Records
---
Amino acid sequence: MTTPLSTDTKTDYENFSVTCPSCKFWNIFNRVTDLKTTTLITFREVMCEECKTIFAINGDNASEKWSYLLFECYDYLQSKRYMQCVLNTAQALEAFFYLAIKKKLLFDPRINQVIGNSEFNELSKKLYENIENNTCPDLYKIFKRLYYETINLDTKEKIIDVIKNIKKLGKDFDETITHVWKLRCRVGRKEAYRPTKEEAEKCIAFARKAIMKFAIDFKISTPIQFWPQGSLK
Ligand SMILES: [Zn+2]
């Protein structure tokens, strides 16, 4: 007997949710806790949490992190969770700028054989460590300097140097990014500010417009060979 397959699937950054083909119970499988993986689910047997039937799930969405975070905002808008909208929007921007920075400093140099595999792994770790505590406005500034200025990244040594001194690329005070970031700080910190629907919508619209523009202008996405192992088969 073949394993029944669920056809009704909803995926987001954290969860893989499906209807059980047997009892129609809506199962929410958390990727980390229940499925124990953060890679793309192409086929996986699971057990219904209600009737214990074994069935299979597939049809995952190979999206970039920023896209999950941003498009989840529309669910939050529906359920009037405007605070979460603002937090997700700022996080989507951060994820996008981090991806763009990685493209410039790691993916492109690796593809063009300026750095090898072991340097790629080592520098990925370094870049993450050096940028870990940087917030959205910092990442935006680094992104802008890397993409709009002529920073020479022709050799391994130059890349190592830029990554080492990445914090020096500084902060930026772009009005629109700052607007999202200020609102995010009000929501996410002590004040726990409750934004209005209009404020949340404005935030999402801005982030979406900015990300789409940069993504298209600079072809920013994760090249296939850099997706987590086993995620694309
Ligand atoms: Zn069931």
---
Amino acid sequence: MKIIIVGAGVAGLSTYLQLCKVLPSFDSHTVLIFESHKPRGDNSSRSSNPSLAEQQGLTDRAAIVGNSIALVPSSMRLLKYIDTRVYDIFKARGCVNESYTFRTARGHLIAVTSTGDKESPEEYTVSCPRYGLWECLHEVVGEDKIQYRTVSEVDLSGEKPVVRLADGGEESADLVIGADGVRSVVKKAIFGEENDRQYAPCYEGFCGVGAFIEGDIPEAIIKHRSMVFTFGPTGSFGYCSAAPQSQRKLGWWSNWGTPEAPDGNVMDPEEIRKQLRERHGTWKDPVIQNIIEEMDTDRIYPIWTTPDLPHWGEGGAVLLGDAAHTLPATSGQGAGQALEDSVVFSLLLAHYMAKAEATGGGLTVEEVVTLSIKGLYEIRYPRVATIKARSRNLYLTNKKIDNVVFEYMYYLFIYMWTNFPILGQLIVGTVFMDADERGAGEQVEEYLKKKGQ
Ligand SMILES: Cc1cc2nc3c(=O)[nH]c(=O)nc-3n(C[C@H](O)[C@H](O)[C@H](O)COP(=O)(O)OP(=O)(O)OC[C@H]3O[C@@H](n4cnc5c(N)ncnc54)[C@H](O)[C@@H]3O)c2cc1C
């Protein structure tokens, strides 16, 4: 079987590693990985804010490298399951957060909740620069496996999918995996004109800004080994240690509601500071005030999501990760869901391949691919839809709250879901708290059993 993976981000590279592990006779298959952008070189996740020049040309989504990412315990377990080397590197370079601290803009402490999943050994939420996760995956997969070539078009009209490259090259395959993010070329091939009309990325009514500063790690983080989230009438502000605390690398982010998507991603840092002061200048936490004065980023990110798609592939092409379901960045779950897609799809493909081999041609390669794509959607779509809905519940202040009564009602709402786990589970579920979800492997097993396959 010949497989082409478009995109060497979280979804693409974790799928490659998972296929290496589970696909029967992996060496007898050909797997090509095409990526449009070269990594920025060694230690990039450990330096300060990446310069604009370094980010030029990256896709909208991938460009937002100057920000933190956090993997919740279930995603950490999945990372370990996919490859222990990636897990070890990510954990060593990131910061293990044992709790989340929730505060109000007026300085009230709402809750300190554990991030631990109470399993043995216990996993906690790990934070790291976003680019750090890509680096770990690149290191383990190996640069020699990745071809830095941009896919310009995918043609699904023939017997087999054909991938056309911007450099004039062309490759056909039995399966094309679209792991190419929010503005996916593979998605365009699958949905044709509908892609622009009905399934183009939607602006969520939210924007974000965030980066890193170097300096002493605040007491609020050290005391409870915590990520700190503050909510107020004009948005939210968060900070965490983005590396082991000894490295003094503080990641921060601010999200706010605004009905119109800004024209571009780039803004004068002084204008960003002015806006941060307008939104958070009266907030009581001195750490927030210090970050606003110290920060030097020139990037903001409007938050885009993918509309619900009726399927995640056909004609020998499948979508994984953000290409299938870009979630609000505020959900903190996009990378974790990309990992889940990778595991579920690879297990299904391996299962149907093994079945095809065992039945001596009872299933064709096309049927193997079609069944795997269908299974992926049936297993994964409901979970992703729930996460999307819950993250919208959490960030219901996409309009300014200009009334003190509503402001306190909002704090009460946060107090309820952070202090009463059952309520929290219903309202925000895995957005901050890690649900007792079944593992990806179990979900696949259950699905296959139900289908009698
Ligand atoms: C600010 C921010 C904060 C976030 N925080 C979190 C968090 O805390 N926790 C979490 O789990 N998730 C978080 N996310 C979401 C997470 O980063 C994404 O969901 C995740 O990166 C998706 O991975 P992906 O591989 O599907 O797509 P991407 O990471 O976008 O990778 C796609 C890859 O495809 C390549 N590509 C695109 N087009 C082509 C082409 N035509 N040819 C070849 N290659 C191509 C791109 O260069 C890129 O490398 C956050 C996102 C943002 C924006």
---
Amino acid sequence: MSTVWAVPSGLDSQVCWLAGCPPCPVCLTGPCSCGSVRVSLPVSLGQVSKSGGTRQSPINIQRRDSVYDPHLQPLRVSYDPASCRCIWNTGYFFQVEFDDAAEQSGISGGPLENHYRLRQFHFHWGAVDERGSEHTVDGHTYPAELHLVHWNAAKYPAYEEAVLGEKGLAVLAVFLQVGARHEALQRLVDVLPEIKHKDMRAAMGPFNPSCLLPACQDYWTYSGSLTTPPLAESVTWIIQKQPVQVAASQVSAFRELLFSPLGEEEEFMVDNCRPRQPLMGRRVRSSFRPLKWG
Ligand SMILES: [Zn+2]
């Protein structure tokens, strides 16, 4: 495969922004019509594009620079398995979607002032185990990262408005580490062959995503952005300190998916992660006391 899913230096201030097109192999961050069309974000979204943005994600978390905040409460997580709807190949990653018409599934507490409803979750991963997570910790990259995306229904009438609004989204992030097989993840892995190509979709029965969370509740939190278009700076990130273990074969199964739709040349879905962005003076807070380093 010759496709390089890395953003060439100097090109990533633009994103492709045409709906319903295959993923752009150049800009990484979004769809484009043919891989050669590159357009700037619409003016109305200019303030949320990377260009000029000061709160972009992902970032590297430096443990020694994070600040313990004793006022941070434990995160309260309550997901209704029955609100799980479907799993689909977006052409960039696979995503599991939830019915967010009611309050039944969501998170509150932690750094959040409101209850945020679960909308979807998805993963980012690498072509090899040495890379794949979007966030890093002290420069360490994990093979994959889970993002559970929630929106602030107390402040916004719809997800689409929350995406672009102040404190509109809360994304709960979990690192995946190669180790023991993860039984709950396997339910998703088993469905992946049904959604191998872009735009393929499969129904999901009840599924509780809290089974994908680590036992330890310690987290870091900071203000950032979506890592895919529109890169809106509306996200309160909550990043679990403890990774969850998954089998190497389970991450390998992610890599069998394709960016490409049925009937087109096969492009394996790997390295669907945005490069780290500058911290720009932001403070990363931790819910836990840092370890003393010898
Ligand atoms: Zn993501």
---
Amino acid sequence: MYQPASNRYQQMKYKRCGKSGVMLPRVALGLWQNFGSVNPIENQREILRKAFDLGITHFDLANNYGPEPGSAEKNFGTILKSDFCGYRDEMIISTKAGYTMWPGPYGDWGSRKYLVASLDQSLKRMGLDYVDIFYHHRPDPNTPIEETCEALSHLVRQGKALYIGLSNYRPEQAKKAFELLRENKTPCLIHQPRYNMFDRWIEDGLLDLVEEEGVGTICFSPLAQGMLTDKYLKGIPADSRATKNYFLKESDITEEKLEKIAALNEIAVERGQTLAQMALTWVLRKDRVTTVLVGASRPSQLEDNVAIVNQPELSKEELEKIETILASK
Ligand SMILES: NC(=O)c1ccc[n+]([C@@H]2O[C@H](COP(=O)([O-])OP(=O)(O)OC[C@H]3O[C@@H](n4cnc5c(N)ncnc54)[C@H](OP(=O)(O)O)[C@@H]3O)[C@@H](O)[C@H]2O)c1
């Protein structure tokens, strides 16, 4: 019988999500990869236990996480029931809909038909009465944004989601959606964009917008799927994500990237951090970032990542050195 660590809330720091009442852990765990039906459930259990012991209270899912799609929610539900019974109220659980989930015209994008049906399916798979955050996973160019926002608001009014999130919305799309959700009296809690040293699009408008709007920001793939760690410096390890050639491909680990990774690693070592830790510290340097949303294939990675909450911020000189490396050809 699993007993969570009694000191778990001393291990983590928490930050208010935008102007809401919700506090989120500075490091949250996503179940996009390593939690599907193709992955051993015992390892999933160990990662989730370790996360909770480290004070990670936020777990991020989506209808399509797996593979196969839906299996991450199913596995998470199984482990919630067996290990975390009695701890639901200590957790913020999110899921999403927006990518292809089932065949035909109603299993994708942003219609009311899809969003309502998908959340019902997700709740069943996880064995939950409600999720804390329900996200629209990506903007839909063909459905009126009013319909998508009204569907999200409807799910909150029904009590199936406590808060609404948006993911991958560009600033102009996000601004319109924030406005509509506010009019519906179900304001957007949080935006979930990709942000890491190799992908900085949110610096061009989105971060200013979320600040103005009082919306939180949770950054996904802060380690660029593992590239911003020291693991690829000596070749591609057999058990790493790149070998799966799924979303991260071996061909993504180019010579140019490796040169930057090696130079960044030197700064991390000088600071007494791992490169993973420095990459996460870098994302959190922006005050408007509430949380980094990491993935993990083993519990030790979470130990490494969560240690950042007690490590020093990056100095002006270190930030400048990092900028020079990132800007180099
Ligand atoms: N909204 C969206 O569209 C969207 C898209 C993508 C992801 N997400 C969310 O963001 C979450 C995180 O995404 P991500 O998995 O790409 O994040 P990430 O943190 O950039 O990458 C995670 C991978 O990095 C490696 N890693 C993690 N910590 C490490 C450490 N300390 N040392 C060495 N390697 C380490 C592991 O790779 P190995 O497997 O090689 O060990 C791990 O699987 C997802 O689970 C999901 O919840 C959302």
